Amino acid sequence: MEEIVGVSHECDFPAEANARPRVTHCPIHRAGLTSKEVDEWVGRALHENGTIYTIDEPLLRELRPEVILTQKLCDVCAVGYGTVAQLAATLPGPPRVMNLEPSSLADIFSDIRRIAEACGVAERASEVISQLSLRVEAVRRGAARLPSRPRCFLMEWVDPPFCSGHWGPELVEIAGGHDPLGRKYQPSVQVAWQEVLDARPEIIVLALCGYDVSRARRDYELLQRLPDFHSLPAARNGAIYAVDGNAFFARPGPRIVDSLELLAGILHPDEFSEFAADDRCDMVRLCKLPA
């Protein structure tokens, strides 16, 4: 952290990140909009402006970074790469701009290595990736022994419904499940509610992109009002969960392995009891088994 001179408006982990100057801004960040309002605002902003974020250029010049981490993966998730690269070219140095564009677990680990090398701490990456890989393989081995792979809908948005993409379906697969609606290694997309009904998920995990458990709790009320919701096996069996999508599933960093372990505890609580504690603050079961 001592090398970090600035962060985005979203950066909040570890806690020390909150003390760093914030160089980006989003008008709807913590604005209290509904899911539908967020979706509509994002669509309008991208159509009219090409971005939903602004950069504090004077502050960035003052901070004089040597390396800037940005991404091309999703225009909704962070400032677009082109905007950052164009500005960086005018800064003193100029700073090195690193584009992070992972679509898989392997890509995330590769990015950790690239960042470490750019920052002159390559040996740290090897240690971090080794430890993370051991945890991934422990889940993979445990899940491989199980006779069943439940249908799990990893849901990134409720109104309108979005499936998971990129590494999301891969995490479900490693954890011993199958996401019939997921788009492995591809961007997530809006799906028709009828597609969800047809997929008949046995488990639904609300991992709302950019939002925490409390928001997922609120959007569960929207989910319940969708046509024939209670006909879904997940609803009938009380197998609908809210997780902290903002802290874990949506962020392609070391905590992506925490996301995998969370899923393992949800999909197979007997096999992965160490990840299935009822008192977790990053995961909550939204509906109970019928009496």
Annotate the secondary structure layout.
Elements: E1 24-25, H1 35-49, E2 54-55, H2 57-63, E3 67-71, H3 81-88, E4 96-100, H4 105-118, H5 122-144, E5 152-157, E6 162-163, E7 165-166, H6 168-174, E8 183-184, H7 193-199, E9 203-206, H8 213-224, H9 233-236, E10 240-243, H10 256-267, E11 283-285
Parallel strand pairs: 3-4, 5-9, 7-8, 9-10
Antiparallel strand pairs: 1-2, 5-6, 10-11
Helix pairs in contact: 4-5, 5-10
Give the termini distance in whole angstroms: 50 Å
Mean pLDDT: 90
Q: Indicate the proportion of strand residues.
A: 5-15%
State the helical fraction.
25-40%
Task: Specify the number of helices.
Answer: 10
Q: How many whole angstroms does the radius of gyration measure?
A: 20 Å
Instruction: Please write the string of helix (H) and strand (E) elements.
Output: EHEHEHEHHEEEHEHEHHEHE
Number of strands: 11
Uncertain runs are none
Quickly give the structural class. alpha/beta
Shape: globular
The major sheet is characterized as:
5 strands, mixed
**Order of neighbouring strands in the sheet with most strands:** 6-5-9-10-11
Written account of the structure:
- This protein is α/β, with parallel strands linked by helices and 291 residues long.
- The protein is built from ten helices and eleven strands.
- It has a five-stranded mixed beta sheet, sandwiched between helices.
- The protein is globular, with a radius of gyration of 20 Å.
Give keywords.
single chain, 291 residues, alpha/beta, five-stranded mixed β-sheet, two-stranded antiparallel ribbon, 10 helices, 11 strands
